Amino acid sequence: MAAPLLLKGGRVVDPSRDLDEAADVLIQDGRIAAVGLGLGAPDGATVRDVRGAVVAPGLVDVHVHLREPGNEDEETIATGARAAVAGGFTAVCAMPNTDPVTDNQAAVGFIVRQSLRAGFARVYPIGAISVGQRGQQLAEFGEMVGAGAVAVSDDGKPVASSHLMRTALEYARTFDIPVADHCEEPSLSAGGVMHEGLVATKLGLKGIPAAAEEIMVARDILLAELTGGRLHLCHLSTRGSVELMRRAKERGLRVTAEVTPHHLSLTEAACERYDTHAKMNPPLREAADLAALRQALQEGVIDCVASDHAPHAYDEKEAAFDDAPFGIVGLETAFGVAYTELVQGGALTLPQLILRMSTVPARVFGLPGGTLQPGAPADVVALDVTAGWCVDAARFHSKSRNTPFAGRSLTGRAALTLVAGEIVHDAPAAAQA
Amino acid sequence: MTAGLGKDLIGLERLSPDQIRLILDTAEPFKEVSERPIKKVPALRGKTIVNLFFESSTRTRISFEFAEKRLSADTVNVAATGSAVQKGETLVDTAKNLEAMRIDMVVIRHASSGAAQFLGDRIRSNVVNAGDGKHEHPTQALLDLLTIRDKLGRIEGVKVCLVGDILHSRVARSNIWGLTKLGAQVAVCGPHSLMPRGIADLGVTVLRRVEEAIEWADVLNVLRLQLERMEAGFIPSLREYYRVFGVTVERLAKAPRALAVMHPGPMNRGVEIDSRVADGPHSVILDQVTNGVAVRMAVLYLLAGGKPELADAAKGPAAGGTD
After folding, report:
1. Catalytic annotation present for B69
2. A316, A284, A300, A352: which is closest to A13 by C-alpha?
3. Which of B8, B108, B110, B112 would best serve as a mutation to test chain A binding (most A beta carbons within 10 A)?
4. Do B122 and B191 have their domain in common?
């Protein structure tokens, strides 16, 4: 076990305890030992000066694609976990649309073992809802949970069959895990490559209407009500979805939702000139959607921010818009984009952002973390929210570079990331090296 | 006026009214070349042009090829079938290979919207969009504009209605940009299942019935209705389409004023247009085809850096003279 570590002089923001004050954080034996002003360093402790930084529970991302097994040229569990801690994330949930699909206990166990071997962030597997994500037969939720899965999802694909979604929600109740759905009505979205609106009309690209998402959001909410299951809605993108979520929460249903940093900061206009780095599913929508998503996050109608980190090889995006794959990387820009757009933009306070990027996502998926409560695992991030930085995709730890934020000036990034008390990312040290 | 069009011709959306007029005006002297016994002028002598057709086309490809040959350019045709493209070569590799061969110009037709832009952004050669997906088909719209100007003497204030499958039509988009920029009044008419979202925001009126379009318009531009649209469920049948939206002699007889009927081709006789209309007095369809060569000569000439005021001189001595 490493020596005790004292993070001295920071601003501690812990939304789990409604804490926002100048304090030191003492870490011992991989756990938070104490939080308070003027803490003394125990014998042999390392003291780290974090004046000027925000010390917060490590960020938690409930929606990433790590591509292993199957597409290790785009990302591996190790490179994804490294990218995560560089972005301030101490825990990520890996979606099961790997090749082969993570739809059984052996596949789930493989991800757990690879993540333990890699170190860096904690990687929690999400199992598939259906065998092979083919939308027909339920995967073995019980065995997957036994092997370490924390949720189930067929993300990447929608659950087209309402019957399958119903049984998934019902069956998942035994294990008390959320069923995370990618909401897309496939017959409405077929062939679509961007939001159906004026920009798509001008570009001559086939659109995906907002209704393609909203129909499934509405269906899933009705099924959550029918079954009493725990429903989690992935990457909401439309104002209509926000309204449906608002009503679901007012009725007290067990429904949670996430939104990505890109849907909170970019619109369909980013697709102009056929920029394939603005091609994602769900697509970037309109300014009114973006405004509704921001407000929903602030009010808690949407529970958390998730990156939907989706690495692709550089040459796959170097194609005509129709031919390029959906998705962008996000782990290393998520906090910077969110801080710059939402906190500096006045939509959220910093403690609210940490709540939505750490405490709440941990709670929604039942993960340890999201708190600096003494006794909790020392998953901690020290965030630099003063210095601006420019997104240089070539310096990503991720294997992939597909980001629409390249060249953007952002404020807010992880200076120091700790998982179980171990320093796994140290930006100042890296800069000196 | 800023002379020239820039490096590429991707679409009319990004051209100024002056640039569009420049192309139309430059096309005028080139019309005469096609009327000569020896249809060749030296304007692009020594230039190499590749006609890169990833999607089948007869009329547009031949029109470009004649335009190039009548300007004395050296041309190569690449069709998708049998080429490296069919063997899985990506657009970016095709672009790099063309670049390596030091081609002066590329004329590209591709099924993906944005393909011409993609190529133009990656090679130094001039790129001419000969139709990209559902995006734009600028030279078609330019020849439509030239035909309207020939027939009505002006474009400003003219009422033009595009009839048919607006949703999938690059011809419609390019026409909307070109016509609105030159001050025409533009309407679109067709089944709402074939109308793109937000089309009215482009400054056009949406007409529900073809009878309304005929009553309103000076020019009808009738778009091709593809069989695939019926198969994809956008319309119930070609038969019903003709019954509801077909431009027929009976309907045209009720037009309150002389009306010109255009069609970008290839026509589906008896689907979007009555044969008697296509071959009748309203039709200016073959004038469009003739103008296509002149407009494409103008575009190639201007992109190659030709001075518009020298277009006449660039034609060289009038044919039929000396020999």
Report:
1. no
2. A352
3. B112
4. no
Catalytic residue (choose from A14, A154, A220, A308): A308
User: How many other CB atoms are there within 10 angstroms of residue B82's CB atom?
Assistant: 9
Q: Is the pLDDT of residue B1 over 50?
A: no
CA distance A174 to chain B (A): 43
Bridge-based pairing state of the strands A380-390 and A151-153? unpaired
**Residue of chain A whose alpha carbon sits nearest to that of B170:** A204
Do B173 and B274 fall within a single domain?
yes
Q: For residues B129 and B148, state if they share a domain.
A: no
Judged against a pLDDT cut of 60, whether residue B323 lies above it is answered with no
**Which residues of chain B lie closer than 8 angstroms to A320, CB-CB?**
91, 110, 112-115, 118
User: Hey, is the C-beta of A273 within 8 angstroms of any chain B C-beta?
Assistant: yes
SS3 A393: helix
E strands in A108-253: 122-127, 151-153, 179-181, 194-195, 207-208, 231-233
In this complex, do A197 and B136 lie within 8 Å of one another by their Cβ atoms? Answer: no
Q: What are phi and psi of A69, to 5 degrees?
A: -85, 160
B143 and B109 housed in the same domain: no
| Residue B4 domain-assigned (yes or no) | no
Phi, psi of B57 (to 5 degrees): -165, 135
ipTM above 0.85, yes or no: yes
Is B225 found in the same domain as B126? no
Q: Cβ A196–B197 below 8 Å, yes or no? A: yes
| Confidence check: pLDDT of A2 > 80 | no
Best residue in B109, B193, B197, B201 for a mutation probing chain A (most A CBs within 10 Å): B197
| Closest residue in chain A to residue B135, using alpha carbons only | A204
Domains of chain A: 5-55+377-432 (2.30.40.10), 58-364 (3.20.20.140)
pTM of the model: 0.94
Q: What is the pLDDT of residue B319?
A: 45
Query: What CATH code is carried by the domain that includes residue B44?
Result: 3.40.50.1370
Distance CA A284, CA A210 (A): 10
Q: Domain for residue B70, yes or no?
A: yes
- Point out the residue among A198, A318, A323 whose CB comes nearest to the CB of B198: A198
Contact A204 B115 (CB under 8 A): no
Averaged pLDDT, B233-257: 95
Are B157 and B184 members of one domain?
yes
Write down the catalytic residue from B31, B36, B40, B59: B59
What was the pLDDT predicted at B3?
Answer: 58
Indicate yes or no: CB of B113 within 8 angstroms of CB of A322.
yes
Q: Rounded distance, CA B306 to CA A77, Å? A: 57
Looking at residue A343, what is its pLDDT?
98
pLDDT of residue B98: 84
A/B interface, count of CB pairs below 8 Å: 66
Where in the sequence is the domain holding B299, given as residue range(s)? 17-136+289-314
Q: What is the pLDDT of residue B321?
A: 39
Assess whether B232 and B127 both reside in one domain: no
Q: Which chain A residues are Cβ-neighbours of B10 within 8 angstroms?
A: none
Predicted local confidence at residue B83, as pLDDT? 58
Domain-embedded: residue B242: yes
3-class DSSP state for residue A155?
A: coil
A400-423 mean pLDDT: 97
Indicate if B88 and B206 belong to the same structural domain. no
Average pLDDT over residues B98-119: 93
Cβ contact B117–A274 (<8 Å): yes
Range in B72-81, B167-176, B215-224 the model is least confident about: B72-81
Cβ contacts (< 8 Å) between A200 and chain B: which residues? 196-197
Domain-located, residue B307? yes
Comparing alpha-carbon positions, the chain B residue that sits nearest to A320 is B115
Residue whose tokens read 């199957």: A70
Per-residue model confidence (pLDDT) at position B322? 39
Instruction: Tell me the pLDDT tens digit for each residue of A178-206.
Output: 999 999 999 999 999 999 999 999 999 99
Does the active-site annotation cover B322?
A: no
The pLDDT value recorded for residue B4 is 80
Decide if B179 contacts B219 (C-beta within 8 A): no
Q: How far is B39 from chain A (nearest CA, A)?
A: 37
pLDDT band at B316 (very low <50, low <70, confident <90, very high): low
Q: Determine how many CB atoms are found less than 10 A away from the CB of residue A106.
A: 11
- Token pair 């998402």 is found at A213
Domain count, chain B: 2
Q: How many CB atoms lie within 10 A of CB B139?
A: 27
